[in-house]
Write a structure and sequence with these properties.
4-stranded antiparallel beta sheet, mainly beta, 3-stranded antiparallel beta sheet, about 40% strand, 7 strands, 1 helix, SH3 type barrels, globular
């Protein structure tokens, strides 16, 4: 996955929610473009996630995205993380 592919997903009209799949098995749902930020340089993404009583931010490298699935069934799951 590269910056251009992510940018295309974020700029799609109409926007379609998508789920980012990482190499370690995490699934991170992106409900709208406001939930994801990509700095102007580098290969890092920041995705806001809603967990429990509050939110969190997941930081990941584009190199560790194994695939992206597009559609309304966005998911959040972190089996590759030690703590939630």
């Amino acid at each position: 996955m590269d910056r251009e592919q992510i940018s295309e997903l974020l700029q799609a009209k109409p926007f379609q929610p998508f789920t980012v799949h990482t190499d370690d098995g995490d699934l991170i749902g992106v409900k709208s473009p406001e939930f994801i930020w990509m700095p102007p340089v580098g290969d890092t993404l920041f995705i806001a996630v809603e967990l429990g009583d509050g939110g969190a931010t997941k930081m990941l490298s584009l190199q560790h995205i194994s695939q992206v699935t597009v559609g309304p069934g966005t998911e959040i799951r972190f089996p590759g993380s030690a703590a939630q």
